Amino acid sequence: MATEVAPMDEKAKRMRDLLSSFYAPDPSISASGSSINASFDNINSTSFDADQYMDLMIKKSNMEVLLQRHVQMAAEIKNLDTDLQMLVYENYNKFISATDTIKRMKSNIFGMEGNMDQLLQKIMSVQSRSDGVNTSLFEKREHIEKLHRTRNLLRKVQFIYDLPARLQKCIKSEAYGDAVRFYTGAMPILKVYGDTSFQDCRRASEEAIEIIIKNLQAKLFSDSESIQARAEAAVLLKQLDVPVDSLKAKLLEKLEQSLDGLQIKPEDASKLAEHNDSSKDEESNDQGPAKIHEDAVRGFSEAMRAYREIFPDSEERLFKLARALTTMYFENMEIYIKKRVSAADFLRIFRIIWEDVVLMDEVLPEAALSDLSAEAAQVTLKQFVARTFSNLQQDISDTLLKFDINQKEIVDGEVLKVVLEASRKAVLQGTADIFQDFRQLLDESSGIFVKMKDFLVGWVQKGFQDFFRSLEAHFLVLSGKTSSSNETEGKSSEKIHAGLILVLAQLCVFIEQKVIPRITEEIAASFSGGNSQAYESGPAFIPGELCRVFHAASEKLLQHYIDTRTQKISVVLRKRFKTPNWVKHKEPREVHMFVDMFLQQLEEVGKEVKQILPQGTFRKHKRSDSNGSNTTTSSRSNTLHSDKMARSNSQRARSQLFETHLAKLFKQKVEIFTKVEFTQESVVTTVVKLCLKSLQEYVRLQTFNRSGFQQIQLDIQFLKAPLKETVEDEAAIDFLLDEVIVAASERCLDVIPLEPPILDKLTQAKLAKSKEHNNNNNNNTISS
Predict the structure, then answer these.
(1) Which of 562, 571, 550 is nearest to 502 (CA)?
(2) How confident is the model at residue 490 (pLDDT cuts 50, 70, 90)?
(3) Longest dimension (CA), the chain
(4) Residue 180 and residue 235: Cα distance in Å, rounded?
(5) What does the DSSP assignment read for 73-93?
(6) Phi, psi (rounded to 5 degrees) for 704
(7) Which of 107, 127, 367, 504 has the most neighbouring CB atoms within 10 Å?
(8) By the 8 A CB rule, do 519 and 431 touch?
(9) Based on C-alpha coordinates, what's the Rg of the chain?
(10) 47-99 pLDDT tens trace
């Protein structure tokens, strides 16, 4: 079969043209093949017209394209000059070497004619003496050959006389193969001399052969005999010229039924792999599952070999049976790997399958079982790689969800820290185990795996890329940030604990900073290169892209945690402002209980972030006092006290409101919402800012009487101290608290603030009450 010539690339064509132009006497000869169909714009053609080419380029191209073509053509000219120079140098060296070789040959040939004459004389002398020896020994050699032929004839005669006895011995020992071989060997002599000299021997041998035929037919129809034994019986009967074509359908049907016993079923694959591994470590005569399966497949192969010899016209059916068995092997393997299977067990089963395929391929090479197995093995191995990554993702998800996160555990213990450490360990250990499994596959020396190593490298790279993308999407589903069609994975945001969202955010940071660089090093060390076809539908492993994905995911999850916590606190704030009738509110007697609930929620946030996030550089950002807008409570109290005798209560209230609005106009601009950092202080500060902003909006939706406004004033005054101790940006908190007071005053029907002494008295009473409550709780804890 003629082989197709592979098309030459650009460089090969250029080198061929250079050689042709260098060695051809007529330059037109070298380019005759290409100049026939060359157009006027082909720069490599002999009929190239520079003027027409330039006109065409100017019409079709702009200045940028012309400059690019100029640079490209200059580079091509330089490369052609370099190639031509190297070609001349190489040929010059070859010419010098050829000249030196010819000179050496001339010097070595000198004097050889005399030696050749002497050699010819010696050969003629040896030939004459050999002819003399042959003539003297001719008669003796003829006599020896005649005696040898007589001896062989006597042996054959003796074999014919001993044939009946030999056949009887074979019948007793059931060595029917030897009996058939003896009888078929003697048949040429019995056919010629069986009616004369060897008549009695022929009759006795035929009687013995009839017994052998009956025994072979009984074995052929016996269901207790193995397929191989029955096939051997059919072969022997055919050698004895007994018709067996009528038995073909029945024998092939029996062979098809034997396929069920040869399958490697998923439930038996583990036992087969374990026994196959143990049998290599220690020699044993125990007929375990692997040995039994090997013997069965070997018997099946021998039966197919025998059937092919008996029934040459049944090859297509035998091919179909062998392909069906191979296909069932890999279909059961795909079912087997749906469970959690180690690479070692996967390789053991694959070796068994490949050994079976090799046995059958030796018997039926035309069935192309190796090619069929290679295609099926690629599919199975790719599914195993994908299943391995899926199992790792499931392990990480189970680690995150196996802990029962509730508020009491977070307050009393460090359950979030335990979950984070366990999930980090699951990611690191899981990826390390995956690399160990894939290295076992890469180091496998079986014939079928050697051909798939490049594919395996590509699948591993693509698998890690898809795994991390899928893991990022799964984290967003677990956090409730995105929805999932799978009900077992997707949960509503109300059922997801905010602490889990914070764990996922920090885990994304860990994967970005620690895991992906480690995976990149491992891939570069052991899984670099690979076949491009393995990931033609998408990119291979791109660590930079994955780092960006997880960096963005960590920011999304951190913001989602803040939003979740803020929404929960906003529920408390909304209930506080929608429940009472603020127009008929009574005079404030104490700080409202919603303040305690608000501070309790912030305390929970602080305990959560303390377990997960690192502590940042805690720098207090205070408001500037240059404009007089941030005077202390005591200074305002003293000022008001000094003016108490000079102004009435109504005038003092209007003056305070006027001062507040005026101070707001001249305040320095405060940046409220900044970028959230992965630190405890940044997250808590952001949550407080968002809550105060929500508080301001709820205040703007209500209408207050004097007492309602004073209640808001009292609550905000009490919040100032604990909030400033919690956050790092005091200036923004002061600004937002003042905004709440301003919003309440704008929505108040009769704005008269509480006197500073009254504010101090009520806040001190609340502080004393809170301290007493905390002491009682501590005593109860100690006693319990």
Answers:
(1) 562
(2) very low
(3) 165
(4) 10
(5) HHHHHHHHHHHHHHHHHHHHH
(6) -115, 150
(7) 504
(8) yes
(9) 49
(10) 778 888 888 888 888 888 888 888 988 998 888 888 888 888 888 888 888 88
What are the domain boundaries of the chain?
243-272+289-367, 373-481+496-553, 580-615+665-782
Which of left, alpha, beta for 480 (phi over 0: left; psi -120 to 50: alpha)?
left
**Torsion angle (degrees, nearest 10) of CA 403, 404, 406, 411:** -40
3-state secondary structure 115-180: HHHHHHHHHHHHHHHHHHHHHHHHHHHHHHHHHHHHHHHHHHHHHHHHHHHHHHHHHHHCCHHHHH
**Could you give the residue ranges of the DSSP H alpha helices within 174-226?**
176-193, 199-220
The contacts of residue 170 (CB under 8 Å, 6+ apart) are: 176, 178, 179, 182, 212
Distance CA 502, CA 54 (A): 67
**pLDDT of res. 364:** 82
User: Hey, which residues does 704 pair with through a beta bridge?
Assistant: 748
Give the mean model confidence (pLDDT) for residues 562-566: 91
Nearest partner of 259 among 340, 176, 348, 331, judged by Cα:
331
Rounded mean pLDDT, 594-611: 89
Question: Per-residue DSSP letters for 245-310?
Answer: GGGHHHHHHHHHHTHHHH---HHHHHHHHHHHHHHHHS------HHHHHHHHHHHHHHHHHHHHHH
Distance CA 784, CA 772 (A): 18
8 Å CB contact between 228 and 299: yes
Residue 52: CA count within 13 A, CB half-sphere: 8
Give the pLDDT band (50/70/90) at residue 297.
confident
Of 545, 507, 500, 491, give the one whose Cα is nearest residue 404.
500
At 703, give phi and psi (nearest 5°): -120, 125
Neighbours of 115 (CB within 10 A): 9
Calpha distance 269→338 (Å, rounded): 12
pLDDT higher at 703 or 667: 703
DSSP assignment of 368-406 equals -HHHHHHHHHHHHHHHHHHHHHHHHHHHHHHHHHSS---
pLDDT of amino acid 618: 52
Distance CA 219, CA 35 (A): 77
The answer on pLDDT for 547 being more than 90 is yes
Report the alpha-carbon distance of residue 510 to residue 660 in Å, rounded: 47
Highest mean pLDDT among 20-29, 162-171, 657-666: 162-171
Q: CA 782, CA 253: separation in Å to the nearest integer?
A: 84
Q: Which residues pair with 748 in a beta bridge?
A: 704
* The residue to which tokens 């051997």 are assigned: 232
- For residue 717, the tally of other CB atoms under 10 A from its CB is 21
Residues 273/264, Cβ–Cβ less than 8 Å: no
Token code pair at residue 743? 């919003």
Let me know if 71 is exposed, middle or buried by CB neighbors in 10 A (0-12, 13-18, 19+).
Answer: exposed
